Amino acid sequence: MAGIELDQEIRQSLIEEIKRYFADELQQEIGGFDSEFLLDFFAERVGCHYYNQGLADALKALEGKLEELGESVSDLQREPFR
Q: What does pTM read for this prediction?
């Protein structure tokens, strides 16, 4: 499976967030290259876990909707004439 490619604008925004986090929380300056490297590292090593959880959550939501749909269809059934 191919890696997830982020839109360049989103990617740049995340890089700036990493730099800001390091400055505000760790009192360390981190450059753009290091921020980009860190983003790539987390995307590769951690991102798949969030991605898979997102898929599992979507599947669970879809299964719930399908169950609701099945119940709605069952409610439409009519008793045969006797």
A: 0.69
* Separation CA 20–CA 23 (nearest Å): 5
pLDDT, tens only, 37-80: 999 999 989 998 999 999 999 999 999 999 999 999 988 888 88
What's the rounded Cα separation, in Å, for the pair 46 and 49? Answer: 6
Cα separation, 42 vs 67, whole angstroms? 36
In whole angstroms, how far apart are CA 24 and each of 5, 17, 30, 35? 28, 10, 11, 14
Contacts of 43 (CB under 8 A, 6+ apart): 3, 4, 6
